[in-house]
Structures are given as C-alpha cells and as structure tokens.
Amino acid sequence: MSQTRAHGPLGRYASTEESKREAIANAPLIPGLLSRILRLFAPHQKPLTVTICLVIVGAGLSVVPPLLIQDAFNLGLFPEAGGPNLDLLGTLVAIMVGIWFAIGALSVWQHYLTAQIGNRVMGSLRVTMFEHLQSMHLGFFTATKTGAIQSRLQNDVGGVATVLKEVIANMLGSTVTVGASLIAMLILSWELTLVAVILLPFMVILQKRIGRVRARIAAGTQTSLSEMSAMTQEALGISGILLSKSFGRQSSEVDRYRRENLNQVNLQVRLSMSGQAFFALVQLFMSAIPAVIYFVAGVLILGETSLTVGTVVAFTTAQTRLLFPMMNLLQIGLEIQTSRALFARIFEYLDLTPAITSPENPKPIDSSKLGLVEFDHVSFRYDESGDYESAGLRDVHFAINPGEYVALVGPSGAGKTTLTSLIPRFFDVSRGEVRFAGINVNHLDLDDLMSHIGILSQEIFLFNDTIAENIAYGKEGASASEIQDAARAANIHTAIMSFPEGYDTVVGERGYRLSGGEKQRIGIARVFLKDPEVLILDEATSSLDTQSERLVQAALDSASANRTTIAIAHRLSTVVNADRIIVMAGGRIVEAGSHRELLRKKGLYATLLKEQQLGNRDDY
C-alpha cells in the first residue's frame, strides 16, 4: 500500500474502507482534539445550528407521507361505504406533494449551508496551515517530503468540507430517519415491524461482506491509479521526456504504462462487477422484504387482525425508508474515526513549533554597521545527537568588513554552503555566535535581518509567470521602470526585449523557456531590485557555459560593487580578484588570504588551483 500512502493516508478523504482504517491506525494522538475541532466551527455557530435543525426537520417530515398513505388507501381510495372519496384523496395527495416539496427545499437549503460552512472552515484552515508552514525553519523542509506536506495541505484540509456532509449531516439525518421510520412502523403494525426488523440483519451482514471485497478491490485500484499517476508525472515531465528521448527509451516507457493500464482495466471491471453484485443484492432485499411482509400480512388478516390494505402499503413505504439510513448508521462509527484521524493530522502540523523564530524584543540593526558579518568560534552540526568531530562546521572564526568581497572555496562537503546559511538564520549555530552589523543574529527580527541580505544560488527558481513578475519578486510593489532598470544592471534587458512579448513573456515551468545564463541574470535582477547590503553567491556560475558565465560574471561584478559579498565558488577563476579568499576543508578554515598570498603558501588553495588548471588551461 505504499503508493496509496504517497498520496496521503487520507488521500481525498480516504475513498476506500481499507484506506480509512489505515488512516485511523496511523493517526497521531492529539490532546483535546474534539474541543479543538469544535472551535473551528465556533465562528459558524448560527448557520450550523440552522443546518442541524434543517436535517432533523427534513428527516422527520420524510416519514409523514407513509402515514398519510394509510388514510389515502383506507379513506380515500377504498372507504368502507361507497366509491373513492376524491375530495379527501385530493387533499391527502396535495399534503403529500407539499411535504415532499418542503423536504426538497429544506434539502437544498441544508446543502447550501453545509457547503458554505465546510468550505469556509476548509479555506480558513488551509490558509492557517500555509501561513504556519511558511514560518517553519529550513530544517523542517529538508527532513520532510514535499509530497507529505502537499498531502496535508490539499487532501487532509480538503476533506474538512466532506466531514461536515458525510458525518454530521448523514449521522443526524440517518438517526432521525431510522427513529421516525421505526415509530411510524410501530404505529402502523407492531407485528409487521417485528418481521421487518428480524429480516434486516441478513441484509446488513451480506452488505458488510460484499463491502469488504469491494474495499480490497478498490484499494488495489487506487494503488494502480497512483502508480499510473507517478508514471505520467515521471515520463511526461520535462526532465522525464528529455531522459527517455536521450536514451531512446520511449517504447519501454509505453510498454510499462501499457502493462499498468491493463492491470487498471482489469481491476475496474472487477470493481464494477462487485458493485453490480451489491446493487443486485440490494434490489433483491428491497423486493423480498415487502414480499415477506405481504405474506405475513395475509396471515394476520386471516387471523382476524384489524389490518387493512392501506396499512400494509403505508407500512412497506415506511419500511423502504429504513434500509439505507440503517446502513449509513453502521458506517458512521468508521466515518467519525476517519474524521478524527483527518483533523489529528491537520493539528499535528499546526502544533509544530518553528525551531527558529524572532525574539520577543528584537534589537534594531545599526545602519552604520550594515555589511559587517562576524563568525565568533562557530560550530554547527545538523544532527544534534552527533559529536563535534563530525560537525558540519568546527570553530569557525573570522569577520567580513562592510563592502568586502570574500570568497569561500574548498572541496565538496567542506561546509561552505552551511556557513552562509547561518547568516540569515536558516539554521542556528550549535556553538559560538554569528553577528550581523555587530549584533547576534539570534537577537534580530528575522524579517528585518533578511531585508538586508540577498541570496543567489546555482539553481534559480522561477515561477511559471512572466519575466516581469519573476523579477518583481525581489521587491513587493516594484514599478515597471524599476524592474527594467534592474534588468539592465543584470545584463538581461536586451535578451528580454528580443522575445516577442518582452517582459510579458511567460518563462514556463521552472523557467524551461530560458537558458541557464538567462535564468541566472533574472535572479541577479531580483537582487538588484532588492538592493541588499549583504550578497551571498552560492556557486552562481558553476553550471554555465563559458559565454554565459562571462555575461553572468559581469552582472555579478556589478551586483557586488559597494556591498558586502560572500561568494561560494567552485571555479576558482571567478574569485581570483576577491579581497579575501577563505579556504575550507572538513568544516574548518584551513587558510585565508588574497589569491597571490595563498599561491605563495602552496597549501590547499594552490593544490585546487593547479588541479583546475590541468583540467582547463584556457581558464587562466
């Protein structure tokens, strides 16, 4: 069932009985869950009360027509003296039609209120969870699968509206209908009621057995659908299509999809046939129970019981309204447990406490010291249970002055990216202190801190939106002229204007319509728009060709002018002019100095440079 879990244990509110029971078993334990659920609906107390009343009144009214049918037959159609009493019959028919009309109107009203309440609670809850997730620290997202987060936000929260309909409305409606139907049946004939109630359990038992078979088939169908969905996402995505075409594997992908599709077809046929068997069984009992009642009624009439034709017809009409609500009530326990599991999963995320938050009384940033960044004997480890010998950073100590260009170099895994992630407090240090503008970053407001920092990474994320909107993400409310000025500074304006739609060009998913160099320069334009005092460059040119690298490097040189710049570099040719180069290995600073100073030391930097020169002599 792993594929089913991939879409969330409550994938679209657990469509099969098996998946519902799995969701219940895996649900977290949340203290005071019921009271918290009720508080969600508290702002909608009045419409919820009206909804409950509508359900009760509608269900109660639905058993009145069977009682009127008795009089329609006994007094209207077949009175003891004379022919049919059309006046009385017309009155009774009009009352029954009026009642059914009222039931329909109440049902529409109740459905509107249910949909309104459920969707408003769902919408509010979705925004609350999204806002809460936005406040979570970076470590949460690196440790949690994106699919799991999306499942909580879409499937689980999306099931809230269904809860109101499936649990509250059905539970109340079915309970009132069953109770009222039984009362009506007892009023009409206690003997026939006894017969109907005795036969009902056989229907329930058979329905449960067929339901289990259908649940197993439905679970297999959902697993197969999940597998086909995964295949589609992998094979028809941009990356997947490029991969299959590059290796000539289109036919094998089609064969794989065809096999799973055949499995899906067979499962759907089995599911359809099991469903047909269930409905055939329902029809059998719907026909058999009234037939048995007719036979028992004949026996009772022969036994000189005062049982009339109208009573028998009215009784069978009331009895037919008992079957499906009774089945609904048998499932209510499972539905309630599933609903609790759904809310428990939602509250589990809402109860997560961000590991990194702004202090209650943050210190103001001293504008005269903006650009000053200090690491004071900093150690850091991702796994707090580990020892400091295996830490990501160990006793890192240095300072960067305002306006200084500092490069971080070293082999992969040396801790370069980890070090820069501590400046904007994506993670908190394990030991030591990181200071920004002379103040410990733990004492600064996170939003205030980030407003002075710009980050440009190797992978630039672009929204599937226009170029203008992607650049404008760097500054809320940026004007068209500001966007274009930023693009010019990033050496991308001319390229943008070469597109037919210019700045209104939609870049496509993850910016696939643009080259790597164009995406990087749009990212640089964002930085220009934000205009931060500290700029962090994380291997911003490592994946570009030589021509694109030159264009991007020129833009980066312009972006880093007159601001503190910390550049992580793989290609050492891009940082030879840095004010200072810090060489890292094993989470430590092993040497530091200018390009020339480090060459004279003949240490790790000189070794790395020599290796790159041997790999590409034309770079130097």
Could you explain how this protein is built, in words?
This protein has 620 residues and is an alpha/beta fold. 62% of the residues lie in helices and 9% in strands. Strand 4 and strand 5 form a beta hairpin. Residues 1-14 and 386-390 have low confidence and may be disordered.
Topology:
Layout: H1 2-6, H2 17-26, H3 33-41, H4 45-61, H5 64-77, H6 86-134, H7 138-143, H8 146-158, H9 160-188, H10 190-236, H11 238-246, H12 250-302, H13 309-350, E1 373-380, E2 393-400, E3 405-409, H14 416-421, E4 431-436, E5 439-440, H15 446-450, E6 453-457, H16 467-472, H17 480-489, H18 493-497, H19 516-530, E7 534-538, H20 546-560, E8 564-568, E9 580-585, E10 588-593, H21 595-601, H22 604-615
Parallel strand pairs: 3-8, 3-9, 6-7, 7-8
Antiparallel strand pairs: 1-2, 1-4, 4-5, 9-10
Helix pairs in contact: 2-13, 4-6, 4-9, 5-6, 5-13, 6-8, 6-9, 8-13, 9-10, 9-13, 10-11, 10-12, 10-13, 12-13, 17-19, 19-20
